[in-house]
Design a protein that fits this description.
Probable component of a branched-chain amino-acid transport system. It is built from ten helices and ten strands. It is α/β, with parallel strands linked by helices. It has a single domain, classed as Rossmann fold (3-Layer(aba) Sandwich), CATH 3.40.50.300.
Length: 250
């Protein structure tokens, strides 16, 4: 469904990703793990369109999207969340979710100023999309709350809701569990599983929490120093000597 193939990323002569990649199957939850500086987020940034690789390509449902802009990838069904949320902190939850639908907006500033039927139709459509994911992720009580000041776990769910409002086929999540309490991690993990099972959405998670990865994911790709050093089912990867070496040393 989604293939990152022989990806190479360089920053001023420093190789961040060295001929790395992965293959995601429909309905799968895949994790990319590895120590700090392994190149995980750089690889994810290539797949989501924020970085252009020096070498390699990205295929989505058989189409080469290596040079496709991020907003066009969103329209194709590839959504993204971020490690630090990147939410509009002085907007409400529902406004943040609707903001994720901007690539689909089809009215001008003039339409907005005069509140034309075209503008009203888009706002109604976007609000309906937002309400569906608010129901799905149980964000009802926070609907009109300003995002700033909400608990970290709620902010992560709002970030996921904004991605899901785009009706994606694949969601890329960069360290979704970072900074969360155990209870918040469990809530977010349940939400990911429910979306995966009820909507058939596939996930690619860059994650450091190995306990979450082992419980949640179907397939694991391990990176170290920009390269893929192991991949397979969680139980197999957890016992791979190369993975143990990368995490805890010889």
């Amino acid at each position: 469904m989604l293939i990152a193939e022989d990806i190479r990323v360089e920053f001023g002569g420093i190789v961040a990703v060295d001929n790395a990649g992965f293959k995601l199957r429909p309905g799968e939850i895949l994790a990319i793990i590895g120590p700090n500086g392994a190149g995980k987020t750089s690889l994810l940034n290539v797949v989501s369109g924020f970085y252009r690789p020096r070498k390699g390509r990205v295929l989505f449902e058989g189409h080469d999207i290596t040079h496709t802009p991020p907003h066009e990838r969103a329209k194709m069904g590839l959504a993204r969340t971020f490690q630090h949320g990147e939410l509009f902190r002085h907007m409400t939850v529902v406004e943040n979710i609707m903001a994720g639908l901007e690539p689909w907006r089809r009215y001008s500033i003039l339409d907005a100023a005069f509140w034309t039927p075209r503008a009203r139709r888009w706002e109604e459509w976007a609000r309906e999309r937002a309400e569906l994911v608010i129901d799905l992720l149980e964000l009802h009580e926070y609907r009109y709350r300003i995002v700033e000041g909400l608990p970290p776990g709620v902010q992560k769910r709002v970030d996921l809701a904004r991605a899901l409002a785009q009706d994606p086929k694949v969601v890329l999540m960069d360290e979704p569990m970072a900074g969360l309490s155990r209870e918040e991690k469990e809530d977010l993990a349940r939400a990911i599983v429910e979306v995966n099972e009820t909507r058939g959405v596939s996930f690619v998670l860059v994650e450091h929490d190995l306990e979450v990865v082992m419980d949640l994911c179907d397939h694991v790709v391990v990176m170290d120093s920009g390269r893929v050093i192991a991949e397979g089912p969680p139980h197999k990867v957890a016992n791979d000597p190369r993975v143990i070496e990368a995490y805890v040393g010889g």
